Amino acid sequence: MPQWYEQLRSQMPVTQKWAYFDHAAVAPLSLPAQRALQEWAADLAENGDANWGVWRKEVERVRRTAAKLLNAKQAEIALIHNTTEGINLVAEGFPWRAGDNVVLPAGEFPTNLFPWLNLADRGVEVRQVKTERERLDLAAVAAACDERTRIVSVSWVGYATGWRNDLDALVELAHGQGALLFVDAIQALGVQPLDVAQTPVDFLAADGHKWMLGPEGAGVFYMRREHLERLRPLGVGWNSVKQAGEFSDSRLDLKETAGRYEGGSYNMPGIAALGASLALLSEYGAPAIAERIDDVGNQLCDALTHRGATIVSCREPLRRSGIVAFDWPTTEPPVEIQRRCREQGVILNTRGGHLRVSPHAYTNADDIAQLCAALEATS
Fold first, then answer.
1. In angstroms, rounded to a whole number, what is the distance separating the alpha carbons of residues 204 and 195?
2. DSSP-derived 3-state class of residue 245
3. SS (H, E, C) 27-82
4. How far apart are alpha carbons 83 and 205 in whole angstroms?
5. Cβ-based neighbours of 154, under 8 Å, separated by 6 or more
6. d(CA 109, CA 344)
7. Pairing state of beta strands 324-327 and 354-357?
């Protein structure tokens, strides 16, 4: 009988053409997600809005799936377009006062930096804690906080080298400082387990087009229910109110859920496709997927090291993730190696002057061998 990850592989059409190592950038769609997009397009082309109610119910099904993924309440989940939107809901909605500050690691992806820097005209200071290859020192984070720190914002997993932060420790640190914790979860959600009842992060956002194997433009925003009235609602529209759909009712009676942030029309096809991939991944569960990705990553690092590569990423058990950054023993620049690997049917990426690979649970030994052969062909 095939292993479960081989069954997952059978649902990934990309494997028919590529050895794909770029899930940290844009993931290929799963077969169920592809079908969901096709079904929506065919239905809309053939029926217009006749079945709109069916697709609207799908939105709620996906919300339930996302809530289950985090062990959150459905009322704490909003379906958003991207991680940037989720961060801005907090950055622009928080009741700042001049002199407040936000603490975050240096070297964050711009999505977890620019929205906070954009608060400068409101008197909010951004304090960036120095890191080395994304390694974050909690003592340095604590030292950067003071009585005016309102939010600590971190990536669960760093995009460049894959450093995985300890969310339990960060929650304890932030709350101990009287601050809230925001998590950019795009590089981990769906493939790393997180129970927000046990790890009480305050806010979280992630687009679904990376590890969740969905399309761009459909993601998840989580906020603890207790913070709902703390944030000023943004993007308010017809769908933000309790009587959504009753267009002649002009009362601004906002939903008492995170759904108040879903102000306008939904990205119906994107949400349906994201839901299809989440349903596929949920068949196996985040703990099993995380363990498999860990195993694949170890195999990959062994194969690369054996061929002379230098692993840049931290590979300690509690800090590693699905992202592996490395240097290949050649004088060619990483972008040229990336290009030449593509010609050999291998998709990888570069970040920070290093090569970056990001396999998924369905990646197998043949993919790793193809990657190594492509790299050796560039030497």
1. 12
2. coil
3. CCCCHHHHHHHHHHHHHHHHHCCCCHHHHHHHHHHHHHHHHHHHCCCHHHEEEECC
4. 5
5. 104, 105, 108, 112, 136, 165, 170, 181, 182, 183, 184
6. 29
7. antiparallel
Exposed, middle or buried by CB within 10 Å (0-12, 13-18, 19+), for 166? middle
Per-state percent for the chain, helix, strand, coil, to nearest 5: 40, 15, 45
Of 76, 73, 79, whose CA–CA distance to 58 is shortest? 79
pLDDT at residue number 1: 57
Distance CA 32, CA 277 (A): 6
CA distance 181 to 176: 11
Cα–Cα distance measured from residue 155 to residue 111, given in angstroms and rounded to the nearest whole number: 10
What gap in Å lies between CA 40 and CA 152, rounded to an integer? 39
> Quick one: DSSP state of residue 325?
E
Q: Which residues touch 275 (CB under 8 Å, ≥6 apart)?
A: 36, 58, 61, 62, 65
Please report, for residues 38, 310, 378, the alpha-carbon distance to residue 212 in angstroms, rounded to integers and kept in the order given.
19, 29, 31
Q: Find out whether 156 and 188 touch, Cβ atoms under 8 Å.
A: yes
The DSSP code for 233 is: P
Question: For residue range 131-181, what is the model confidence (pLDDT) as tens digits?
Answer: 999 999 999 999 999 999 999 999 999 999 999 999 999 999 999 999 999
Q: What is the largest CA-CA distance in the chain?
A: 69
Q: What are the pLDDT digits (tens) for 218-260?
A: 999 999 999 999 999 999 999 999 999 999 999 999 999 999 9
Can you give the C-alpha Rg of the chain in angstroms? 21
- Reading the block at residue 190, the tokens are 């769906």
- Using the predicted structure, report yes or no on whether residue 29 has a pLDDT greater than 80: yes
